[in-house]
Each structure stands twice: as structure tokens, then as C-alpha cells.
Amino acid sequence: MQKTILTRMGDGERLKMSPSEIKAELQDGSQTAASMARIPELTEEDIQQLYDIMAEPGRVVSVPHGHELIVTDDGIAECFGGSEADGGSGVSISRQSAVLSYERGLAADTASLGHTDYSFKPVKAILDAEQQSYQTISMLTTVPLFYGSQPNMGLYFQPDGPFPNPADLLPVGKIKAAQEAQEQAAEQLCADMVYIGKGLNEMGCEGFNFDTAGSTGDAEFYATLKAARQLKQYAPNMSIIIGMASEFVLGMHGEIAYEDQQLAGLFPHEQVKLVESAGADIFGPAINVVTSKSFPWNLAKALTMVKETVARATIPVHPNVGMGVCGIPMLLEVPIDCVSRASKALALIGKADGL
Question: How many domains does the chain fold into?
């Protein structure tokens, strides 16, 4: 048996751990997730299989033939032309060239397009330009092409938007005013997302990705669910993805509900049921990484939540496997040793439908 196993911390720092230390981290990570979300822990067989993946000597690991998963993304198709500060390659090429390079050079399963800011609010003002870009690129791509963006309700609060900022109201005890501001912002956000979705559907949009939903809390998740339902009713053949911002919905409002279900505090296995009800086609859980904990601990935590989510879901589940979520260290350029191990574990143990 190996005396030490090379792994990482949640911030990407390299470290060596003994087999017993790895197993203890896996057990503790799973127990933590089970306690937080009130769900079952990983089984002994799961822990052993996860340990075996951690202990594989290769820098990159993979699944057996026949267990490959489809991959969707949140704008990574434009990474070749994206700035290095955003994790891109910084190559001086257009969005169109970047997407085609991703599709044809990397044999992508799907590709995506998104505004540079990757938030819905700025897209509304330039929708005609985004429609033209999407139509042009979709005529040249073969794989499904999604249009993605973040709800990012924070842009609707002052000083960037028209509504009072809850961050200013809550500290001074103006709870009701903060809730009302969030409700008003949520309605405007929903209207904007539906407007953009309908506009892109007119250009033949094949898929719409609500990315990092709930980043400003439960009111934003409410707006996303409401917009997804309206778009699905308007365009039933346009695939809709809802990918989350965190493992549980932040209660910034605290009382807002969707279909009589209070949204604050919901974990992925609960979130997915509302996403299904809204009519979305794919759900992307995001399990937060604790940077002061090890990669084995973080992956076991994520795997515990994803496994239960998949077990309860009736739609495909594509866990978000990127910087700071689902076990992946908080690094701009994520390490392939962690990405490949997390992907293999989510496929074989978590039974995910995609990544």
C-alpha cells in the first residue's frame, strides 16, 4: 500500500496524506454534508471506491469505456478569446472563432455563447446584437449551442440599478423595506430574462442557461424559477438549464416562496424538485468548497449531496465542476488532477447525468 498520496487543499496547495488520513477525510466530509442537508452519508462501498480514485497514481484519471458523461458549460466555449484574468487564453480571436475552436478542436458535446459581462441586465440593451451573433454562430456549429448568463440580481440594486439596496437597508433594521426592494427587483429581473429568452428563441436558440442562479439569495432564485416556467411555456422545445450559485439558497429575503415552498435554506436535493416543477430540462447543483479543508474532504461532501440529488431527480443532473465548487480547489486555472478525479467520482458514484 502507498505510504503517501499526493493531493491538494481546497485552495489548491499541494500536500501529501497517508491512506488512513485520506479515508478519515472522506468519512468526515460525507458526514458533514449529511448533517448539513439531512441526507444519507456515503456508504462504505462508496467511500472505498472514492478512496481508490484518490489513490490512483496517474496525474489524470478517467472512467471506463461506456461511462462517459456529456459536458455542458457556462461560457467556457469562449475561453480561447477570453482574457487571462478570467481564466481565458487571451488569444486575439472573435467569439465566433473561439466557439468554433472549442467545438472542433476539443470535440465539445455542447457549446455556449454569452455576453462578456455574463449577466442578463447588460444583455437587454444589446439584445439585437446578441441575436445576430447567436444566429451567425449557430449556423456554423453542429453541436447544441446554448446562450448563457447569470441572473445576477445585484445589478438591479442601487447604485447600479433602480431599486434600494438591501445591503444598505438590512444593517439599519429596515427588514420590510429590504424585502420589498428584493421583490421589486425580482419581478424586473424575471421580466428581463423572459424578454431576452423570447428574443433569442426567435433566432432559433437551442438552449438557454440560467447560470449561477441564487447568487444574491432566495428572491433571485424565485425570479429564475418564474422566468424558466414562462419561457418553457412560450418555447417548449428550447432546452433550459438552471445552474445554482451555492449548495443552499441564501435567505436574503427569508420569506419568499415558490409554489408554497419557502426558498431560503434549500439544499440541492430540494432545489431540483422546484427546478423540475418550473419546467427546466437540466439542473446544475453547486456544492461550495471550503478552502481550509482538503480536496478529499470537499469532494466527499459534494458527492454526498449530488448522489442524493440524482436519486430524487426526474431530470438530468449536471453538477457544476469548476473553480470552487464540487470539490475543485479555488483556483483560476483549476488543476486537472482534481478535475479528473471529481469528474470520475461524480460519474461512477454520484451517478450524475453530465457535468
Answer: 1
How many other CB atoms sit within 10 Å of the CB of residue 100?
A: 18
315: its cell numbers: 431530470
**Which range marks the domain in which residue 337 is found?**
7-75+109-348
Q: Is residue 289 a part of any domain in this protein? A: yes
Between CA 218 and CA 206 the distance in angstroms is: 28
CA 101 remoteness from chain centre: 23
Per the domain annotation, does 82 fall within a domain?
Answer: no
Distance of alpha carbon 107 from the chain centroid? 22
The DSSP bridge pattern shows strands 5-8 and 14-17 to be: antiparallel
pLDDT at 81: 75
With the C-alpha atoms ordered 76, 80, 81, 82, is the resulting torsion angle positive or negative? Answer: positive
102 lies in some domain: no
Q: Rounded distance, CA 71 to CA 47, Å?
A: 25
What pLDDT sits at residue 75? 81
**For the chain, which ranges sit under pLDDT 50?**
none
User: Rounded to 5 degrees, what angle do the CA atoms 208, 142, 144 make?
Assistant: 20
pTM value?
Answer: 0.95
Instruction: Please state, in angstroms and rounded to a whole number, the distance separating the CA atoms of residues 18 and 51.
Output: 11
Residue 88 lies in a domain: no
In DSSP notation, 282-309 reads EEE--PBP-TTSBHHHHHHHHHHHHHHH
| Coarse DSSP helix, strand, coil percentages of the chain, rounded to the nearest 5 percent | 45, 15, 40
Cell of 257: 416562496
pLDDT in tens, 111-129: 999 988 899 999 999 999 9
d(CA 14, CA 72): 29
